[in-house]
Amino acid sequence: MLDRKDWRDARWIAFHDDNRWRSEWNERKSQEFTRYKANGLTPVLTSDHMTSWQLLDSVTPRYDPSPLLRKQFTVSAPIRSARLYVSGVGYAVEWFNGRRLGTAVLDPGWTNYQHDVLYRTFDVTHAIQEGRNVIGVMLGRGFYGMLSNDRWGFAANAPWINQPAVKALLEVKYQDGRIAEVTTDDSWKVARGPILYDDPWLGEVYDAREEHLGWADTNYDDDAWGSAQIVQGPSGSLRPQLMPPVRPVGIVNAVSMKKISPAVWMIDLGVDIAGWMRLTVRGNAGDKVLVQMAEKPDPQTFIDTTTGNFQQFGYVLKGGGDETAESHFSYMGFRYARITLTPASGAIPRIKTAVGVYVHTDVTRTGIWNSSNPLLNHIDTIWRRTQLNNMNSIPTDCPHREKLGWMADAFIAQPAVLYSFDAAAFYENYSEDVSATQNEKGLLSTIAPSFGYTAGESPLWASADVWIPWRLYLYNGDREALRRQFPGIKRFLDATLVNNAIAGQPYIMRDVLGDWDSPGHENPPEGNEPYSTAYYFLDCQLGARMARLLGDDSSASELEQRANHVEAAFNQQFYSPDFHIYHGSKATEYRQSLNALALWAGLVPEVNRVAVYRNLREDVLARDSHLNTGIIGTKPLMEVLADQGDVDLAYRVVTQRTYPSWGYMLSKGATTMWESWNGRDSHDHPMQGTVVEFFYRYLAGIRVDETHPGFDQFFIEPIFPEGLNQAGAHYQSERGLIISEWTRNRDKIWLHLRVPFNTTAKVVLPSIAIGTCSVVERSNTLRTSSLWRQDREPDHNAEIHFDLDPGDHQLQFFCR
Predict the structure, then answer these.
(1) For residue range 184-238, what is the model confidence (pLDDT) as tens digits?
(2) Per-residue DSSP letters for 479-525?
(3) What are phi and psi of 784, to 5 degrees?
(4) Neighbour count for residue 512 (Cβ, 10 Å)
(5) Which of 92, 341, 364, 632 has the fewest beta carbons under 10 Å from its own?
(6) pTM exceeds cut of 0.85
(7) Gyration radius of the chain over CA positions
(8) Mean pLDDT of 630-644
(9) In the 8-state DSSP scheme, what is residue 364?
(10) 3 state DSSP class of 606
C-alpha cells in the first residue's frame, strides 16, 4: 500500500466540500482575530480566561463537531480474508459491525501531512459476516485541523490545516477466488457527532445528548444522514504506521480527592501523567462536568502555570444512568485535577469514580536497571515515567505546554530510550518526520513534524537528522536507515556550511540554541556558536562514516576533510592556550559543558587533553562535586569523568541531593524529570535522561561495539565507584537478553554476565588497585593484568580484556 494506485478508487472524504469548509473556516478565524486582536491575543493564549464552554461558543456559528462516517455493504459468499486499510486525519477511531477495532487512541500518528500520512491496517476476517456489514469511522481534528491559534505558528503557517478527513479501502477475498473492494467515496453517509469541539492544546467538549446510539451497527437507520463529500485531503504520500500505536496503558488512582464545595472537587493523582481523567458520573440531561487538569495549578484560578492556560475537557450528560466522561482527541500532562459540576436544573450531578488514564505510545520495556542505591533506582523510575509521558507518536519535549518534537530533546535522550524500551520503530518513524522538515535549500527545522518552523536556525538541534539513524544502526543494525537518510543528511551538512557559517569564519556555526537550561540560564551565557560548531564537527564525522559504510568514498573524503577544518577553526576560535580552557564568544565564568563537550567530541588536541581535563575536574570539585551543565553538556560531563578514570567523582555528581542535581528534584517531590534544574519550567521533560544511559553503559557496562552493530558483538565494561555495592541491568537486545550484574563483597567483585546465542562479549574490567588483578570462573583464571593504560594520567590503572562466549557466566574479580 505504498503507491497511490494501491488504494484503487479510494478518495478522501469529509463532512463538507473543500470550498464550503474553507469559506466557513476563514469566517470563523476572522471572528476570532476581530474579537481578541485588540489585546494582541488569540484563544490559545487567552484560554486562561476561557473554560471549555466559553471556547465552544467563541465563534458563531460554532466550529463543526467531529464527524461520524459509515458505509453499509453486502458480502455475498464465504470469505477467505478481509483487511481494512484506514487513514484518518488528524485522528480516527474505527468500528466494524458495531464493534470498535483495536484500542488505539490519538491515532494515527502526527506527521507533516504535506510530506506523508500514516495509515493503519486491520484484519477484519473474523468480524465480517455474510449479508449486511458496516464500517464506521469517527474523526478528530488532531494537528491536522487544530482550532487553537498556537504561539508556534502551526495554525497560521502549516499548509495542511484542513477539516478532518478519511481515506479507506476494504479488501475482501472470497473463498472462490473473487476479490471485492469497498472504498471511501461519496456513497458513504455522514453526520455530526457528539464531540462538539476538539483541539490538541485546548481540549474538547463532548455532549452525550448528541450521540447516535448504535450508529455503527448493521441495523441502524441512516436515512437522515447526509452524503460524505469528496475532498482533496492531505497531499502527502500514504505510508504504513509501523510503530506501536498510542493506547491507554493504565489507570492511576487518586491519592486524594477533596470536596471544596458542593459542586467542586480537587484531585491529586500523586504523580505526573500524560493522558486524561476518566469519570463515572450520574445526573440529569444537560448537566455539565468541567474537568481541568494541571501540572502546577494556580491556587486561585487553577490555570496551569506551566502552560499559561487551562488543560481541560467538558462533558454534557444525557441522563438516565451512569455515564463515562473522558477525553478522546486531546491529551494532557498533569498531576492535579479540578472538577466543576453544573446542574441544568435541580440537583448537582454526582461523581461516582474519578481516575487518571495513562496514555502513551505502547512500547514494550527492554531494559531493567537496579542497584544498591535507592536514589539511582528512583532516578530511573521517574525518567521512565517522564519518557513515556513524552511518547505520543513522536518524542515530545513535554506533554502539556508544547507537545512538540524538539529535535535535540529527542536525539540526546535516544540511547537511554533504546536501552529502556523497544523504540526502534518509534525512532524510525520520527527520523522520517525530521527529514520531512528539510526545505529546498537543504535546511532543517528545530522541531518535527513541522511546517518549516525556524528552518536553518539551529543546526545543533537539527543534528537529530544525523544521530537518530546512526544510533538505529548501532543499536539495531539498521543499515537501511542509513541508506534511506544519507542523501538528506549530506544535503543538510552542505546547506549548513553555506547558511550558518559566520562571515569571515567559514567553519564556525551560528545558532539560536545551545546548552539549553544549564543552572541559572536558558541559552548558555558564553554563546551558542561553540556548541553548534562542536556538533557540526561530530555530524561531519558521522556523515563520513555513513558514507564509507554505504560505499560513497567521495562524500566520505569530503566530509572528513571538512571535519578537519571545523576542528582547526574550533580550537583557534574557542581555545585559550594560556589557561587551557575552552570559552565562548562572550566572557563568562568557567563553563563545564563547553570543556566537557570538547573533550568528549575529540576536539582537544592530544597535547592539551591532560591540562584541559584537569581544569574540568577542578571546576567540578570546586562546585562540591556538582554539575553546571544543560541539555548538551550533561552527557559529556559524566562520560568524560568516567572515561578518565574519575569514576568516584562521576558517581558523586550523579548522586548529589542538593541543587543542581537529579537528587535535588527528588528532594522537592518530583515524580517526573524537570526541564530546568531549579524546577522553574516544565516538570515533565525527559531531556536530562542521559543519566539513565550512564546507568546502562557505565555502571552496568553494556555497550555497543560500533564495528559490530546490532549487538552481534558487544562490550561489557562496568565501572565500580566507591559507595556503590551492587548494580546491574538486563537488556533485551536485537540478539537476545544481555545481563550484566555485579556485587561488591569486601575486596572481591562478583559478576553475573549473560551473553546471547551467536554473539560474543568483549569484557573490559578496570584494575581497581595497584598490583595484579585476576578474573576467575569456576576456579579457572581467565585473565590477569598489571599493565598501565597509556592514554590516562599515570595515577589511573590498567584494564583487563577478555572474551566471553554465549551462556551464563559467574565470575570473581579481585586485585592483590
Answers:
(1) 999 999 999 999 999 999 999 999 999 999 999 999 999 999 999 999 999 999 9
(2) HHHHHHHHHHHHHHHHHHHHHTEETTEEEEE--S--STT-TT-SS-T
(3) -130, 160
(4) 14
(5) 364
(6) yes
(7) 29
(8) 98
(9) P
(10) helix
